[in-house]
Design goal:
The protein has 311 residues and is an alpha+beta fold. It is built from ten helices and twelve strands. Strand 11 and strand 12 form a beta hairpin.
Length: 311
C-alpha cells in the first residue's frame, strides 16, 4: 500500500514509473496492454483474502490458487455477465504483464527483485457459452512472502463499491497510515506522489476536493474522512457504528452486457471499466437517474471517444 504500483488511468497506461521513499524504491514497468490498474488489484485482494482465511483456519497455503471466477466477481462487486468475465481476463493480462523492480523489504528480508504481480493465470474450465468457471492463479514470490509474513491489512467491503480510482487509493493510504492514531496528516504534493497521480497539483487538489465534497454529502468513503486545509491533508477514522447513508443510485444501476461492446466501439482504446466509473460519477454529480441507462452510457462513451476533453 505504501508505493503506488497500480495505475489510476482510465486509458492504457504505458509509462514506466519510479517511486522513492527513503532508501526504498519501486520501478513499475508496463506490459503490452499497459500497467495494472487499481481495479485489477481486486484480483490480488481476493487471492490474499483466501490465503489469510486458510492461515487463520490452520490450513496449508500455496502460491497457486484455484478459484471459481463467479465467486471472485461477486466478492469484488463486479459484473457477472459475459463482459465481466472478459474484463477479468484483461485484468489477468495486465497483472501478469506489469513488471516491478524493487528493493522493498518483505518478510523480514531486503530484496532486489524483478517480477510480475502474478506469475501465471490459466482458465481451467469454460462453460459452453465461453465464460470462465474456474481459474488458476499463481502469485509472485514477493506477493506470497508478504502474505506469509502477514504484511497485509484487511479492507472494508465497501472498498469495492468505490467508483473512482483515486477514491480507492486514498482509502488504501488512510488504512495504512492512520492505524490507531486519531489522525494522519500529509502534504498535498506528497499525497499526490503517493497516490501515483499523473495530474498537476492544481488538478489533483480539485479531484481531492470533489471526493471530500461527495463524501460529506453521501458518506460513501468507508472508514475514514478526509479534510483539505491549504496544502495539508488530514485523514481521520470515522466514528465506529456511525450512520452510513444508503449508496446513491450510481452504485445500483446495472448495464446490459451488450452495452459494453457498443461502448467500446464508440471509444476505441479506452478502458471501458474506467469509463463506466467516470460515467457513474458524472451522473451522481449531476443528480441524474437515467431512465434508459444503457443508452445514456453509450452516448457518454461516444462523446468521450469523439471529444477526449468532454466532461
Amino acid at each position: 500500500m505504501e508505493h503506488p504500483i497500480f495505475s489510476l488511468s482510465k486509458k492504457p497506461d504505458l509509462k514506466t514509473r519510479r517511486y522513492e521513499n527513503g532508501p526504498n524504491w519501486v520501478e513499475v514497468r508496463p506490459g503490452a496492454k499497459g500497467l495494472a490498474t487499481v481495479f485489477d488489484r481486486d484480483v490480488l485482494i481476493y487471492c490474499i483474502s483466501q490465503l489469510v482465511a486458510a492461515m487463520n483456519d490452520g490450513r496449508p497455503i500455496s502460491q497457486t490458487l484455484r478459484l471459481r471466477a463467479f465467486d471472485l466477481l461477486v466478492a469484488t462487486n463486479r459484473d457477472t455477465s459475459g463482459r465481466g468475465y472478459l474484463q477479468l481476463r484483461e485484468a489477468f493480462e495486465r497483472l501478469q504483464g506489469t513488471q516491478i523492480a524493487t528493493n522493498v523489504e518483505t518478510g523480514g528480508r531486503e530484496v532486489f527483485d524483478l517480477f510480475s504481480l502474478i506469475d501465471r493465470a490459466r482458465i481451467v474450465r469454460e462453460t459452453r457459452e465461453g465464460r470462465m468457471q474456474e481459474v488458476e492463479i499463481v502469485l509472485s514470490d514477493w506477493v506470497f512472502q508478504a502474505v506469509q509474513a502477514l504484511e497485509v491489512l484487511t479492507l472494508d467491503r465497501r472498498y469495492f463499491q468505490l467508483a473512482k480510482p483515486l477514491e480507492r487509493r486514498l482509502y488504501e493510504l488512510a488504512r495504512k497510515h492512520v492505524g490507531q492514531q486519531s489522525s494522519f496528516k500529509i502534504g498535498l504534493e506528497k499525497l499526490r506522489v503517493k497516490c501515483g497521480a499523473q495530474s498537476t497539483l492544481k488538478e489533483f487538489r480539485r479531484l481531492l476536493q470533489s471526493i471530500i465534497n461527495d463524501d460529506a454529502q453521501h458518506g460513501h468513503m468507508p472508514g475514514y474522512s478526509i479534510a483539505l486545509d491549504g496544502d495539508m491533508v488530514e485523514m481521520r477514522p470515522k466514528e465506529a457504528g456511525g450512520y452510513t447513508p444508503p449508496l446513491p443510485s450510481m452504485f445500483t444501476i446495472h448495464l446490459k452486457p451488450e452495452s459494453y461492446d457498443l461502448a467500446r466501439s464508440h471509444a476505441p482504446g479506452w478502458d471501458i471499466h474506467g469509463l463506466e466509473s467516470e460515467w457513474r460519477d458524472w451522473i451522481a454529480k449531476k443528480g441524474i437517474t437515467p431512465q434508459r441507462a444503457d443508452a445514456h452510457f453509450q452516448a457518454f462513451c461516444k462523446r468521450r471517444g469523439k471529444y477526449p476533453g468532454f466532461k
